[in-house]
Design a protein that fits this description.
By secondary structure, the protein is α+β, with helices and mostly antiparallel strands. It folds into four domains: 108 residues, Arc Repressor Mutant, subunit A, CATH 1.10.10.10; 176 residues, P-loop containing nucleotide triphosphate hydrolases (Rossmann fold), CATH 3.40.50; 70 residues; 186 residues, no CATH class. Helix content is 49%, strand content 14%. The longest helix is centred in the C-terminal third of the chain and has 30 residues. The relative contact order is 0.06.
């Protein structure tokens, strides 16, 4: 038994232990981890690892990255500050933790971190798994099937396939389309899939003949189809093509051809992709739509998890009923995206907003702050993923989204146009194209402006996108944008600026313009008082008092005294009003 920190690698039973609990690892990830652990403290090149684990078999180096990512997730290891697996850029990996030999797994059962998300944590997808199982039965009867599993990043496409695989005792071959590579190499994912055919305990025979035929017939699509059909002649064979939006056109055409061929085959082809990803081209969409119309394929579109499913996810991760309102908070912040929900839990623990109190089985997770007061930033890993997505856009598209982020999760076109000093028609065209091509934003209605014009509203697909876009701007640039929006609001509502005092104050405060913020808040307080909305008026004045503390002397003393007097007068008015109402009743 090789122990490193709270983990122990059981090489005899081929499993991983964590604080006395066994963690299931698939065969290949376990083999990768074992080789690294057995060769600690030195560089393990990509070639060495590939030769050791896949001798005499051609394997794309990209598959190693997939297994390393899976191991990092299980070990809760951060690539930026690795405790276990260090990446040596363009060369390989090194296992950097101290290792000691033990004879048994750690006896303690005290859990100081939540269970890493596993396939057993898959929730809310029972209908989809049942649907895949039904389709697999049809394929096993010789009626070939093609399935497209679609959904946004992190929605659980891969997890669904893994759960289906675990419930289906058959041969599954995985191919991953890699951005920037797969679109240049014909049949990249197909060749990878056949080179790493994963077999279940009931299917130990690797389809070597079919694999060899596949490699020797890359230039002949018909022969490639026949090679795959050979593997599906006697028993069900499942081919999975992940992220087909990045595939070379030849791969898409091969999937289409396999779906259209009429010869019997016990073949199930599953392809995943993000429908509104910027690289999901019209050709792929048209191929899928044509197959759907001809009833030659099935689409399983994954929607966000329900509130109840997110609650079950949180319960399984923490191995207990969630602290009060934690599941509500996770659901609201993640909007039902499983990847976001898991990342939020990890982030809350890292920030000590969620801590475990007690030892052993008596230990329980507790929130250190109530959900209503939680201010959790975007988890670091998600922020990097979102940054990569944004960086793929043109500079002008990035500026449009950054301008929109100065409002909130939803923004009107006129506001983004004001920030960029462009006309609204131009910005609306950008937003319309971004909605159709990327899915980062969606049209959310329109705003009727005082000048009898309309301005469309767009909303970010997730609050996290808005937050990343906002934070990536310099403080000075954000301030200029906020000031332009505030001044445009005052111009649009000239003569009745008090009606938008709250919005104007928000932008001036975000820009650090304290006097102008106080002025807007006082205008809002006066407007509310005239409407006898005394409570609203008091909130405006209380907010203004807090902002006034940022002013320098002598302005601060003078303004805070005025505000305090106005607030006292308002409270006296509120007290008289309550007394009169009580007498009248």
């Amino acid at each position: 038994m090789k122990q490193f920190e709270s983990f122990a690698l059981d090489t005899s039973n081929e499993c991983l232990w964590h604080e006395g609990a066994q963690i299931a690892l698939a065969s290949k990830p376990f083999s990768v981890l074992r080789y690294l652990v057995e060769n600690p403290g030195r560089l393990i090149t990509h070639d060495e690892l590939l030769d050791a684990l896949w001798p005499e078999t051609y394997v794309q180096p990209q598959v190693l990255r997939t297994y390393i990512l899976e191991l990092r997730k299980v070990l809760n290891d951060d690539a930026r500050a690795p405790r276990f697996i260090q990446t040596i850029p363009k060369r390989g990996y090194s296992f950097v933790a101290t290792i000691k030999e033990t004879s048994a797994p750690a006896a303690t059962t005290n859990k100081t971190t939540p269970k890493p998300p596993t396939l057993a944590d898959l929730v809310g997808r029972d209908d989809e798994i049942l649907r895949l199982q039904t389709i697999a039965l049809q394929a096993a009867d010789g009626h070939r099937q093609t399935v497209f599993i679609t959904g946004e990043a992190g929605i659980g496409k891969t997890s669904l396939i893994h759960a289906f695989r675990d419930a289906t005792q058959t041969c599954v071959a995985y191919g991953h389309c890699v951005e920037g590579l797969s679109d240049k190499e014909p049949y990249y994912a197909i060749l990878e899939a056949l080179g790493h055919c994963i077999t279940s305990p009931d299917h130990n025979d690797k389809p070597a003949a079919g694999t060899a035929r596949m490699h020797t017939s890359q230039d002949h699509p018909g022969e490639l189809c026949e090679a795959l059909e050979d593997l599906a002649r006697e028993k069900l064979f499942i081919l999975v093509v992940e992220d087909i939006q990045w595939a070379h056109q030849s791969t898409v055409e091969l999937v289409s051809a396999l779906a259209r061929r009429s010869t019997p085959a016990k073949l199930l082809v599953i392809a995943t992709y993000r429908p509104q990803h910027h690289s999901t081209n019209l050709y792929l969409k048209s191929i899928k739509q044509d197959l759907l119309v001809r009833h030659l394929c099935t689409e399983i579109a994954l929607e966000p998890l329900s509130k109840q499913s997110v609650g079950r996810l949180v319960s399984r991760r923490l191995d207990q009923h969630p602290p009060t309102q934690l599941d509500d908070f996770i659901y609201q912040r993640s909007t039902g995206n499983p990847l976001f929900a898991n990342a939020l839990l990890d982030h809350m623990i890292a920030e000590q907003a969620l801590v475990r109190i007690g030892d052993g089985n008596d230990g329980k997770w507790h929130q250190t702050t109530s959900s209503s007061n939680l201010d959790i930033s975007v988890p670091h890993e998600l922020a990097r993923l979102i940054e990569l997505e944004i960086d793929r856009l043109t500079p002008q598209e990035q500026r449009v989204l950054e301008a929109g982020s100065l409002m909130n999760i939803a923004f009107p076109v006129w506001a983004a146009a004001t920030v960029l000093e462009e006309n609204s028609e131009t910005i609306e065209q950008f937003c319309d194209d971004l909605e159709r091509r990327t899915g980062l934003i969606r049209r959310a209605g329109h705003d009727d402006l005082p000048d009898d014009t309309r301005s469309d509203f767009y909303a970010f697909a997730h609050q996290f996108y808005r937050e990343v876009l906002y934070q990536r701007q310099t403080t000075n640039r954000r301030a200029k944008g906020h000031i332009r929006i505030a001044e445009q609001l005052k111009a649009l509502f000239a003569g009745r600026e008090a009606a938008v005092a709250s919005e104007v104050a928000f932008h001036f405060e975000a820009a650090g313009k304290w006097q102008r913020t106080v002025c807007a808040l006082r205008a809002g307080a006066l407007h509310a008082r005239e409407r006898r909305a005394y409570q609203d008026s008091a909130q405006f004045l209380t907010h203004a008092l807090r902002v006034a503390e940022n002013l320098g002397e002598p302005e601060r003393t003078a303004i805070t005294n005025e505000l305090a007097a106005e607030l006292q007068t308002l409270r006296e008015t509120m007290a008289r009003t309550r007394s009169q109402q009580q007498k009248a009743s």
